[in-house]
Known about the structure:
The structure is a homodimer. Chain A is α/β, with parallel strands linked by helices. Chain A folds into 2 domains: about 1-105, ATPase, nucleotide binding domain (Nucleotidyltransferase, domain 5); about 125-295, ATPase, nucleotide binding domain (Nucleotidyltransferase, domain 5, 2-Layer Sandwich). Helices cover about 35% and strands about 20% of the residues of chain A. The mean pLDDT of chain A is about 95.
Amino acid sequence: xxIGIDLGGTNIAAALLDEHMKILxxxxxxxxxxxxxxxxxxxxxxxxxxxxRMGNVTPDMIRCVGIGSxxxxxxxxxxILFSNNLNxxxxxxxxxxAQYVPxxxxxxxxxxxxxxxxxxxxxxxxxxSAVMVTLGTGVGGGIIxxxxxxxxVNHAGAEIGHTVLCSGGELCTCGRRGCYEAYASATAxxxxxxxxxxxxxxxLLATEKESLNGLRIFEAAEQGDTVAQQVVEEYxxxxxxxxxxxxxxxxxxxxxxxxxxxxxxxxxLTPIRKQVEASVFCKQVSVPKIVTxxxxxxxxxxxxxxx
Amino acid sequence: xxIGIDLGGTNIAAALLDEHMKILxxxxxxxxxxxxxxxxxxxxxxxxxxxxRMGNVTPDMIRCVGIGSxxxxxxxxxxILFSNNLNxxxxxxxxxxAQYVPxxxxxxxxxxxxxxxxxxxxxxxxxxSAVMVTLGTGVGGGIIxxxxxxxxVNHAGAEIGHTVLCSGGELCTCGRRGCYEAYASATAxxxxxxxxxxxxxxxLLATEKESLNGLRIFEAAEQGDTVAQQVVEEYxxxxxxxxxxxxxxxxxxxxxxxxxxxxxxxxxLTPIRKQVEASVFCKQVSVPKIVTxxxxxxxxxxxxxxx
Lengths: 307, 307
């Protein structure tokens, strides 16, 4: 058996899994990341013990505890070099957690874990290589080549969200202008929706004000609001533009789109596929499958457990 | 011993090498790609036999004949699926060449071979992973991960030149707008130089007219021509912008810049490094070395020979 932990900015989600990647039981706790890291990590230890009690298993029956962490983990030492979300700098995660957990542990970036989860048990199961693009608050990237997470010599790579798509464009959280994240994240969609609402007070989008979110923009488009339709069209153009970039470089078997927006399914896949097929570099060869993630938040837990 | 062939749009360059990657002797012939492919390939056969005579070796002493070809080779079959430069479509390169050459043969993309050459014997020697960006007529990409060429499941990847950097911008040869190639190739530099010359008839650039080339633009900048200096600055901004993208995704040990422009050495490396270091995503971790290629045209030959 294994335990996977998805350490998020808001919640710590953990589960006990069997070797067939089936989730046997789950527990979670609020992260409350404003606390000292020692307290957050102690709670992670409590989750491991809670799951073992719930599953009626002993530490020697657990092959691995894997953790998907935001930011940049140093796999070898188990330290989190830094994480904006948690405001962690050089936090000795695995060393600290070892005080509570007498089980072999591994850690990787959360986007990498989600990609590995989808690769092992979800939308990219059975493929040779896959790239996952998670469209959330930011844009996360996870690259799996021949079954192995690829993230560069310093494990800081795979930052697909931080490749410039519109040089000189919108300011990104990373400090550069025009990053893919600044055009393809849910945050970017909401920004586009707000701008359109200001220019078009007649639009359904204008009724939402501060409560406007990605889902509402898609719903308004569905209801025939032409302003919302244009926003969705523009947003999906950028999403597809970045996916085409990824394909031209990686040519994986499959591109997995994750994040809240992937709930739109074929409504986003059809226009994205159309644009990608028309614009990829090597149309004469195969074009990768483009699919939405199937495991939701479980992807990160499963991937972490099977690091 | 091995033979490496760099099949170019203008010339076919071939060399006999020992197992230490030392070039023992060379030969070349014009490609004259307007001819039927059979004639081009027959000339490649003549080069192999010429090199064997020159080196006084027999076919059984040659371990491999490797070919770097433009376009998209299918490694397994040895066919060139397509090449814009040669105007080849589904050309059975290795099968045709086997009529003349009774030696095991391999083929890969020319940019991949150049990257492998620099990785094995040039600017990236001793590294774990390297990405080569060749700034020539186009922008070629070559990705070496753990000593192996990475180009995707269909061998059509690594097209770093065909990732959009300025969405909606300049038209690229691939049909998309705003590709890295349309901003960082020597062709793009010349375009920027011509545009500046039109707007500034007082500039040295305006005296060149049709003969304006990349080298002349760098020379004019060196001579204090402020218009040329601005063109070089703008051009290097885009070069560095794309290199930062590559680093954020790949985080290799080293980035190798190839192509004619790499002759500028520190004059281009200093501003590129400065911009990259200020803008990469994970400044807290290591930043890859950025160097210019050292093998020139030999990189492709050496890489091909050691495929």
